Amino acid sequence: MGDQHGVIEALKTDPALADLRGSLERYYGDPARDAALDAFYAPLIRPGDLVFDVGAHVGDRLGSFRRLGARVVAVEPQPLCARALRALYGADAAVTVVEAACGARPERLRLHLNSANPTVSTASARFVRAAAAAPGWERETWDDQIEVAATTLDELITAHGVPAFVKIDVEGFEDAVLAGLSRPLPALSFEFTTIARELAGRCLDRLTALGFTRFNLALGDEMRLALPGWRPAPEVAAHLAALPHEANSGDVYCRTASR
Q: CA-CA 20 to 30 A from 204: which of 19, 29, 95, 191?
């Protein structure tokens, strides 16, 4: 994979990528965080596995998946983020960058861009409305819109193979992404937020219907599971419902009996 330090520094000083500087500074250059990511994902990802990173942003999780020896399909609709991903991983034959959103069907989608904080750009107008009325989100502004192509998880599987793990982080569009999946997979994660708890419930229902049986969650950017052992979906749903608003976000991890 090579030394990326020079590439990252060049990206941070590129005027065209100024909106991504904060993300690049946050997610790169912290060896302790990298080690925590790798230790967290190691039970889910084995060398040679195929992983889909849906909502790859600037690729910090992608980097962890590669350090663990996985082949990665990185799906990212934001043109600036896709450009950064290609600069960082374009020479890596084990990484495929797909510049597209992921949703319920192949179509064109309107992407709401947050230029000050691109990590919360979203294809969900409902998410933007929920954030507008939520404490703690007052400074977030979606100040531009673009039209992007959308693919589905089923289409990605047809094109690239069956993944051992899928990471979904798409800011309130997770239920649409899961609507485009018609089969169980060994493991998967999806982001939740406390401003859209009902969405997490819909995601859990969808995954249970697909055959996922074991669940847990991690809060915020913590690299540890919050519950003891893998739990049934109703227990995780109850835990999500009881979280204080200030918990803000995290990821639900989902497994089938195949791994």
A: 95
